[in-house]
Amino acid sequence: MAPSSIRETQSPEATPMHRDPDAPDFVHDYVNLASPLLGSTAELASDEFFAPKERLLQDAAPVFLPDEFDANGKWMDGWETRRRRSGGNDWCLIRLGVPGVVKGVDIDTSHFTGNYPPAASIEGLYSDTAPDADAGARWRPLVRATPLKGNAHRYEAVTENDPVNWLRLQIFPDGGIARLRVHGIPFREWTAQERAGEVELSAAKNGGRIIAYNDAHYGAVLRLLSEGRGVNMGDGWETRRRREPGNDWIIVALASPGAVERIEVDTAHFKGNFPDSCSIQAARVEHGARGSLITQSMFWPELLPSKKLQADHIHMFGGEDVAKLGPISHVRFNIFPDGGVSRLRLFGTLM
């Protein structure tokens, strides 16, 4: 197993997408497979007396409300079990909305100081039916029992290469965890029909992921690649008001290299703050660290030339508007000069 680290942090996190800038590369390079945006759910827990299991997977950074109490005690933003008095340990079963290969995990105990578990482990399996939480034979270790600290992130790289769609988080013996992030690559076995036809190359459910961006002050940037139209102005990528020259941008890694044939840019609910225009640059990148991709992307050829945008509108581009660049793996979506976009979709054929 690759080296891991514990780092004390202050909460809530203030970094874009709630990501720690000093976190391992897997946090920045892969999608959070445990996100509810992909359909992941906390299915069953041994106990959730103080705080429900569903909070464990929320995409928002955990918060602390010093004066908030409920019928069972202090309100905590995470999953928290009661104090064990009869031996054993607590656990939570998580169903991934999309099967995936796990590259690393972030066990976040933000705001849990005197009530965090001393240790935790994570196991995975691939099963078409709900597993028995107590049956250990089929579970594969992803993260063996590892020590935790209070109000800190525990990052653990994972070397298991087989896809999983169920996770078992065990804490020893009890306590609370604010968030569990499971970073990896969605596993897609493309059907013959999909390979012969059009697929949504950018969709998060297919493996599309956001690599980098210059600003994401408002909204929920991860929603940019999700399904459906935005439900409100907070359901998408929105930057702050730009007071200096230049423009805002975001880099997306496609689920699989492909030839893009049509593009949708949806400004749903963005009315007084939609971008004036947009463009897309693209390239096929075999290898490249996040930092080098940012620099490279400035010089990628145009896939979509600058196009005017409208408020609260689905913009569809195809035909001669989309350059024939052949198979690409990454795109840089530029907005001019700033503003909000609800969804970005790129459709094409797998290569």
From TrEMBL:
Q: Does the keyword Transmembrane helix feature in the UniProt annotation?
A: no
State any single GO MF term: allantoicase activity
Domain of life, per UniProt, equals Bacteria
Query: What EC number(s) does its UniProt record assign?
Result: 3.5.3.4
The GO annotation for biological process reads: allantoin catabolic process; purine nucleobase metabolic process
According to the UniProt entry, which residue ranges have a biased composition of type Polar residues?
Answer: 1-13
Assigned keywords, A-Z: Hydrolase, Purine metabolism
Write down a Pfam family by its short name: Allantoicase
User: InterPro entries recorded for this chain?
Assistant: Allantoicase (IPR005164), Allantoicase_dom (IPR015908), Galactose-bd-like_sf (IPR008979)
Record pathway: Nitrogen metabolism; (S)-allantoin degradation; (S)-ureidoglycolate from allantoate (aminidohydrolase route): step 1/1
Is Membrane tagged as a keyword?
Answer: no
Catalytically driven reaction(s) = allantoate + H2O = (S)-ureidoglycolate + urea
Q: Which residues form the Allantoicase domain?
A: 39-184, 207-349
Positions of the region Disordered?
1-23
Which SUPFAM superfamilies would you find in this protein's record? Answer: Galactose-binding domain-like (SSF49785)
Q: Which family does it belong to?
A: Belongs to the allantoicase family.
Q: What is this protein called?
A: Probable allantoicase
Organism annotation: Hansschlegelia plantiphila
Q: What lineage is on file?
A: Bacteria, Pseudomonadati, Pseudomonadota, Alphaproteobacteria, Hyphomicrobiales
Q: Which gene encodes it?
A: alc1
